[in-house]
């Protein structure tokens, strides 16, 4: 329960501190979007909210429950889940910038006291055992240096019978060492080889698996939508944040997102801590 973090967690925190205000490009949603099919014309922002709903629905939340959001970003999914289900949410992130930005967003949403995002490392969580009714790790587990440790911590702080829903970025094709280095530099560590190893990892941590879904085809449009949004807002962003910062951001994000588009998929796994655990 100590307030400590690994070197990787510190690097992840620095990465998100650096991105900072650029989260506005995606409306504060640091996750992919969801489309039913090629024919689905849902706009990018709505598609990201839709994925929050897709993932959040699997928690089967009830009014008044306490939800833990592991890797909460700037609190956008936490705010939406609190509004939709009447739950209270505690989020953790390793980015100090995100903590401050999440507080601003929570106050703007009128949810002070119901949604809190604080600094905390998922691998050494600052909560006693059995603290939460449900937990979500929405596009955060890919950043874990030690995924088994995160899962063990989530299992510890979840009450018996509590649900846990998480997403993962599996590799869809072999990755070269250079590609692994690009992913690593962008906080994606060791993509699993598919659903089976992910399910096995959650089972080994003591969870009962309820469902596992491969949404790779539903989220892939995210990358083209992101590039279009960046192109559209680039000039404004450069005038506000400086050409150099935007050029560096653009270069880095283009490299990693092109790679994700080609070789990384998307999984959603729903599980439960057994009632007798
Ligand atoms: C891709 S963002 C997802 C944010 C949010 N779930 C969303 O969907 O908008 C990944 C998040 O995981 C957090 N994260 C990464 N490593 C972490 C760690 N060791 N402990 C806590 N949070 C971590 C990052 O700080 C960031 O907030």
From TrEMBL:
SUPFAM superfamilies: S-adenosyl-L-methionine-dependent methyltransferases. InterPro entries: Erg6_SMT_methyltransf, MeTfrase_dom, SAM-dependent_MTases_sf. One of its GO terms (biological process) is methylation. It holds the Pfam family CMAS. Residues 22-269 form the Polyketide synthase-like methyltransferase domain. GO terms for molecular function: methyltransferase activity. SMART domains: PKS_MT (SM00828). It comes from the Bacteria. Keywords: Methyltransferase, S-adenosyl-L-methionine, Transferase. PANTHER family: GERANYL DIPHOSPHATE 2-C-METHYLTRANSFERASE, ZGC:194242. This is Cyclopropane fatty-acyl-phospholipid synthase-like methyltransferase. It comes from Actinocrispum wychmicini.
